[in-house]
Amino acid sequence: MKSDKALWGSISILVGAVIAILALVRGTWQTWLLIGVFTLWGLWVIMVLLRPCMQQAKRRRMREQLAKKRLEEGITGSQPFNLSAMDASETELLLLRHVNHRISAYLRAVYPEVRWEWCEKKPEKLVLAGGTGRIRLYGIPDFDHADVCVDQNASITCNMLKMVPLSEAGGCEPEDTVPPNRQPVDPQIWYEVQGRKVLEALVADLNSRGHSCLTIHENGDICVEEDTEEVAKEHLAGFPEKTYWSRLLQVFERNGLAAEIMAKGIQISW
Predict the structure, then answer these.
(1) 130 within domain boundaries
(2) How far apart are CA 144 and CA 136, in angstroms?
(3) Beta-bridge partner residues of 147
(4) Are 133 and 120 in contact (CB under 8 A)?
């Protein structure tokens, strides 16, 4: 429609120019001016109106040739992805790869160079039914295995493990007698698995009520000062012992919490 309007507009201008030349110019100049006007108008029609049509026709021919070539090669047009058309093994493989990417992202948030593989013979069954499976870790000096738990809500957690031969573990006190906060722990993993949810919810609540800091004691109690007394508001299970606190401060700071080691424990402010 726009091209039709442009064409009729150009014809109106052409007619006006021709009438002006016929009325004002006489002799040979009139002929040359008329030739020039018609020439310019013809070039304008070719450049503005015919050229886009020619380019569109060329693109249409190219699309037809491409479709013909695909048809000859047995390639049909774009087809929607149909999960129901896949057999059971393909579906399991697709879900397993999705879970693999989630596990890799979970581990690389703490250990960017980590690589891993399943120890389970059929991990796809674990992905479908849920449960706990073991993976072998590479590129992490502190751990060599991890237990991956996939629940029915598709949530994934990882518990890091270090396999030690019994001959090398001789003389150590039984594991059951070691307090939870004295067992080897990675502060970043502890925060992601156990600390983040409790702290973020408590900080949001305290901030809405005018508080600006809290203290985490060595036993995991989270306390705030009310008047002159210290009141426990929450408890952090498995809170790392003091030897890990310097690394734990870095974890807090990376997550936007200002932290400082005090005599009573770790003070977090916001």
Answers:
(1) yes
(2) 6
(3) 134, 159
(4) yes
* Cα dihedral value 72, 75, 78, 79, nearest 10: 130
CA–CA separation, 2 and 49 (whole Å): 10
Take residue 187 and report the two structure tokens written for it: 């502060």
Last residue of a domain, one of 12, 38, 72: 72
Torsion of CA 118, 134, 119, 116, to 10 degrees: 40
The one-digit pLDDT tens for each residue of the chain (270 residues) are: 556 666 677 788 888 888 888 888 888 888 888 888 888 888 877 777 777 777 777 778 887 877 776 666 554 444 454 545 556 777 788 888 888 888 888 888 888 888 889 998 888 888 888 889 999 998 888 888 999 988 877 788 888 888 887 766 655 555 445 454 455 678 888 888 888 888 988 888 888 888 889 999 999 999 998 877 888 999 998 888 888 898 899 888 888 889 999 888 999 988
CA distance 244 to 254: 16
Give how many domains the chain has, as a whole number.
3
Whole domain around residue 222: which residue ranges?
187-269
Following CA atoms 186, 192, 195, 200 in sequence, which dihedral angle do they give, to the nearest 10 degrees? 150
Clarify whether residues 54 and 125 are in a common domain. Answer: no
- Please report whether residue 174 resides in a domain: no
**Do 94 and 113 meet the contact criterion of CB atoms below 8 Å apart?**
no
107 CB contacts (<8 Å, ≥6 apart)?
A: 114, 116, 137, 146, 158
Q: Is the pTM higher than 0.85?
A: no
